Protein: Ornithine cyclodeaminase
Amino acid sequence: MTQFVGVNDLSEMVGTMGPRRFLRRLVDYLSEDFARWEMFDKVARVASHSPIGVIELMPTSDGTLYSFKYVNGHPGNPRQGKLTVTAFGVLSDVATGYPLLISEMTLLTALRTAATSAYAARLLARPESRVMALIGAGAQSEFQTLAFQELLGIREVVVFDPDPAAVEKYMRNASGFGLTLRAASSVEAAVSGADIVTVCTAVKGRQALVSRAMLKPGTHINAIGGDCPGKTELDRDILEDAQVFVEFTPQTRVEGEIQQMGPDFAVTELWEVETGRRSGRKDSQAITVFDSVGFAVEDFSALRLVHDLMEGRGKKLDLIPDLGNPKDLFGPLLGESETGAAVA
Amino acid sequence: MTQFVGVNDLSEMVGTMGPRRFLRRLVDYLSEDFARWEMFDKVARVASHSPIGVIELMPTSDGTLYSFKYVNGHPGNPRQGKLTVTAFGVLSDVATGYPLLISEMTLLTALRTAATSAYAARLLARPESRVMALIGAGAQSEFQTLAFQELLGIREVVVFDPDPAAVEKYMRNASGFGLTLRAASSVEAAVSGADIVTVCTAVKGRQALVSRAMLKPGTHINAIGGDCPGKTELDRDILEDAQVFVEFTPQTRVEGEIQQMGPDFAVTELWEVETGRRSGRKDSQAITVFDSVGFAVEDFSALRLVHDLMEGRGKKLDLIPDLGNPKDLFGPLLGESETGAAVA
Structure:
């Protein structure tokens, strides 16, 4: 039987243990998996495009477990009350090829994106960072806030979003987090004085929401929203002056902020910092950028954690037949059916 | 909510309507989809190999629906009571990217493989074909038998398998089909006098189980088992003298019987015969070969049929969140959880 973790199962489980503890555990899993990055099968995502959206499959494997995520991107979905991006995923046993777990991944992707951001910031930001600017108060904003509060020690968040309803929603959701929250009237006002700048807007196209002149020395930028071809959020003058860190270079050159730069623009992969192969932040004055686009290994880590936490719990699905004789599929499954009378 | 069709759901549904009617409906769906072959997004399957097996994802889309199949191949599985090949699949709405259906596909793949064989034979075999040789009495054998009886009018099957237990299992399962069944002591004896030769063995490596001299003029060969690199079942002298038909040429050149031939070996795709763009069998004396490897469009047709037949029935899974405000994922899913106390 294959374990099923639905939206209700996952939100109950995360709610019961508390999202902070879940994020902390997930960062541990990410750290383990980034430390053995070279073991993973890293293939390009497989995209099926239509005029109004995309459906992608993102597989990876460490040789023991295999995972893939199904994820769509449909910017017009909110007009009919649906989500722009939804996802689900599967974790399988490489030894038998049998699926172990099917899980919802809309909520899980939000958690893994925030956990990956906090993981990267822990490697790259100044440890004394306390104030975070949050540009964009959409679906990802509360997750980023919790992760940075819990794992980085952020105590104050200054939020900016051109949509007052989004800011209000954010303030309501984050009001119980135990942080100082402030709404700013512009990107510049939000960023001013921040140690960490998290940019997670849904605005399409080449934007330059944040530019170099807005930043104080030593800022770490957590750039979430520049995550597909043609969509960026940072002025290129930041990239020209920063140390830029990525997940998987070939993918980020196409999808990330660095699509603005040439193909030889120097970047460092996070796993290289994790393993000590290359250094992270060079000094307390440097601008560091995590150019996040999301990679299959992070989904793998998240599914691995859910599988460990849900062991023995949740629903079971009969997705794969359990048969006595592998040469006999017909007998056990259709042997009792009406097969005698041929339609003449 | 996403519809779930498990092994029990599917075998109950097919058992109740009768596998013959299901196969007939599936051939109708295949015929519709092969007739509009050029509309489909045809990408290579994405394989993750390990030393003991492979896990593959096979996506396709017609622009309105999207499907993918997850399928493994692990030859060592039967030693631990598991199936060598299992599968499940997903059908989605291209307009929103939302999954409509998750279905078991181990049984469904057996049905679709048999239906595709019968569909191809209906296009290519002599209509007066009545006797079928069946080489290999494994998991696929009863499905092939039912499909050819129902859709081609086969009345007699002569089976050969070197494993007496497999032949016994086949005879038991097929005893109620209303056919004349005969076991032969060799491939040559089974093939002698047959109008159609179905070859579906699990033997690995380059085999030449059937050769040209065994065949009477006008035979149609339904070659199922040569379906991965390094695995073939026909002597190349058959291919040299036959009209060869395939599903999707680039894939069949790597996986099918024609991997024995050069890259320019002439083949015809089934959809070209379906649409009348190219002709099928040239005369009643020709040897025709359907070099079957299985393609994503056939899985698409099968999932489309299951979705239509199961409409409103079966279990529902909360795979995708149903939210009021697409910018607020946190509130509805984790708003009630314990977020206030930061771990200091």
About this structure: The longest helix of chain B spans residues 106-124.
